[in-house]
Amino acid sequence: MASSQGGVGAxxxxxxxxxxxxxxxxxxxxxxxxxxxxxxxxLDRALEDAVCSGILNLSGRKLREYPGVSYDLxxxxxxxxxxxxxTEIPPEVCLFAPLxxxxxxxxxxxxxxxxxxxxxxxxxxxxSRNLLxxxxxxxxxxxxxxxxxxNNKLVSIPEEIGKAKDLMELDVSCNEIQVLPAQVGRLHxxxxxxxRKNCLHMLPEELADLPLIRLDFSCNKITEIPPAxxxxxxxxxxxxxxxxxxxxxxxxxxxxxxxxxKYLNIQACRLDKKPDTLDxxxxxxxxxxxxxxxxxxxxxxxxxxLSTTEVRIQTTLxxxxxxxxxxxxxxxxxxxxxxxxxxQIGLLRQNIESRLKxxxxxxxxxxxxxxxxxxxxxxxxxxxxxxSIHVPSPAVPKLSMAKCxxxxxxxxxxxxxxxxPQDKLCLPHHILEERGLVKVGVTVQALLDLSSSxxxxxxxxx
Length: 462
Prior knowledge:
By secondary structure, the chain is mostly helical. The chain has a domain at about 335-460: Orthogonal Bundle (Actin-binding Protein, T-fimbrin, domain 1).
């Protein structure tokens, strides 16, 4: 009896202290049980709403199994199951005949079942950040307009992709694809193609016949752009950085798409052994509005560089004329700048590998993106400088962007506390977006310099 009174008194005191405005807690229900009850109730509500609206949203609920078995969701037109822990596409979802959009981003799915061919209304499929090693042939019998399969483990794309006649956007970036099939050239509706960060050595000439607006093949091993690509009249954005480019040379690529297309036209003329007209899509590249830094038009109203009028007049420009007017001294400067950047990235790799006794992959940016290696480096230099590190697990082999960001911010906070000057600290996006490796290298070098000069004092203060 005394213990019962004590329990009631404890609950009363708890309510009157911090939780007076919160829910009433009974002695028989723990906080954990209450949270479970609340989660189950919100899940039921989401499923009930989907029955009425046809829009199923179960994103970010850490689901390992599909919870809607007892609900009639066969009229669903949009399903969002992203950011869960599903290991397969639920068979029930493959029975949603009217389904138009399916989002499976960031799960642990290893294969696409054949039952997906039931979804003959499906136009949008996002299955990025999963564990796919192959795309099945039957997938391309669907009327897809958008297919996103980045950040998987794909090593190839089947030739059957040529059947996806309605496909307008294809993203297969961040995989291990070695060859792009020529059948991609049959995708006559394709507007955006992202093949960034794969293992490609060459581009298929068949892409030249597509109405592409955006093409990203950065971070591969490509050395040459086929001269036939000069026919890509609608192309507005071409992204090709981090490739060992030889044709066009790197100095031409740095000057932007106008100069790339001029080079491709010149190469085509040389191959034909006769002068030819340039296929520069001047109307697309030179709108009457503002000109971007990649447009090939200088800031002085285009007087000092290539102007729109000049492009239209010089339609029979020969190789000799082009090379004689080319400012080679600026090219040399840019090449020297590129060489210095590569040397600094090599030094960054060497610093990390020698300290942590590890071997980083070829893509240093991808290895550092989640912040795990950098946090371990900070703790190696000064133990416990980063108290908590989010690391991948067998169940969730890829960290969420939020956890990656926390790792990176914890690393930068540790650098600041250890005395790295503010002007040598990189920003989080330099690591997370893999776009500022040189600045990351400056931060790491400053951290190592501090450790060699004042490590004993730092260890005493920890």
